[in-house]
Amino acid sequence: MTTPGNALFSATSTSSSTAKATAGTTGSGVGASVALNLVTDITRAAVEVGAAIAAHDLSLLATSTDTMATTAQTGAAAAASRSPSVAVSLSTVTSTAALAAGPAMMLGGALSLQATQTASVDTTANGSVSAGSGAVGAAVAVTVANHSVSASSARG
Length: 156
Known about the structure:
The chain is mainly beta. Helix content is 0%, strand content 79%. Strands 1, 2, 4 and 6 form a 4-stranded parallel beta sheet that branches. A two-stranded parallel sheet has the order 3-5.
């Protein structure tokens, strides 16, 4: 009987996203900036539902590396100044190694399921105002990061 060879299912993703908004004014007294950064990255190495597989060693590897930087910078100078700055980062990163339900597998060696993820989000808002009679400055930075990593088997 011939022994089947090794099977490797590998998925790799590398993502880098930068959003930058810069505004400034002199005279009118209103400077505003809004930076919005949206990233959705799904990395999946899988043997799906119902798939038959025979191998000596079976490896499923999912690896993702994601970086996100969002910056909003504003400034205003006048007799009366207003200077809002808003930075928003929405990051969804999913890394999955999955062996879904199906018929019994024919493995002669090892089963390896591995998912790894390196994800970072940096969100910054800065504002400055200069006024002779009245000034309002506001800076808001919001990060919503939904990052998940899983390695699972639904087969016995």
